[in-house]
Write a structure and sequence with these properties.
It contains 9 helices and 10 strands. The protein has one domain: P-loop containing nucleotide triphosphate hydrolases (Rossmann fold). Helix 3 runs antiparallel to helix 4. 36% of the residues lie in helices and 25% in strands. The strands form 2 sheets. A 6-stranded mixed β-sheet has the order 6-7-8-3-9-10, sandwiched between helices. A 4-stranded antiparallel β-sheet has the order 2-1-4-5, covered by helices on one side. By secondary structure, the chain is an alpha/beta fold.
């Protein structure tokens, strides 16, 4: 269980996270949704220990340190791979440092996305780099796989294929926490939705509960955010009025 208790994060005077508390059990695909600047990336980086914060984050009741950090992996559009190394050398490096590295899964995913094993990753296209970033996060052997906008630069067909592969290869103890703006695309694949707005958790519910309310994921998010559908029309009307 990944436990987040009263976590706050300040950037100067800006409160990026405001007493966030969450319990994330193993064995789920969870969507983390919010506007730009809502706190999604900050929350993930606090979990991973990349940023200092106030509050408490524990994994199975223990503080996250170098002793248990391998239970967490991270795929980010900022990239964490070593550009001059080939995928083959990345795999060798991971096998040395992560005893649970999933070599068979690595080979299957590399073949599925038709990525070259012996070319430096810096020579990959943007989409290929993002695919490789996700592959390494999924093959590390972590129990919790955090993904922050991992599909940037990939076309819709590659993204859809990846969602299907994700469902097919994850084991019961693996949890994916996926931050993305592609809400409608992932709605069929996530089992739970966590909504964050201005640094606060505004909803945390299962897709079953959303469907029981007669909602789909997009309508549920708009309702939770009190989205005003007429705001575009009002803005255009005001601009037209000024121009007259």
């Amino acid at each position: 269980m990944l436990e987040i208790k009263n976590v706050s994060k300040l950037y100067g005077r800006l409160e990026a996270l405001k007493s966030v508390s969450l319990s994330i059990p193993q064995g789920e695909i969870i969507g983390l949704f919010g506007e730009n600047g809502a706190g999604k990336t900050t929350l993930m980086k606090c979990i991973l220990g990349f940023l200092p914060y106030h509050g408490e984050i524990t994994l199975n009741g223990e503080e996250i340190t170098e002793k248990n950090i391998a239970a967490l992996s991270f795929a980010t559009c900022e990239h964490s791979f070593i550009p001059n190394l080939t995928p083959k050398l990345h795999a060798e490096f991971y096998k040395e440092h992560f005893p649970k590295f999933r070599e068979k899964r690595f080979k299957i995913l590399m073949e599925f996305f038709e990525l070259p094993m012996n070319k430096p990753v810096r020579s990959f296209s943007t989409g290929q780099k993002n695919q490789f970033e996700v592959i390494m996060a999924m093959c590390q052997g972590a129990d919790y796989i955090l993904m922050d906008e991992p599909f940037a630069g990939n076309d819709i067909f590659n993204r859809e294929d990846f969602y299907k592969v994700l469902l097919g290869i994850l084991e019961p103890n693996e949890t994916v926490l996926l931050s993305t703006h592609l809400i409608e695309e992932v709605s069929e694949f996530v089992g739970r939705a966590i909504l964050i707005r201005k640094g606060e958790i505004v909803a945390n519910t299962s897709m079953i509960e959303i469907e029981e309310q007669g909602e789909n994921l997009m309508s549920y998010i708009k309702k939770s955010y009190n989205y005003k559908a007429d705001r575009v029309g009002r803005a255009i009307s005001e601009l037209e009025w000024e121009e007259e």
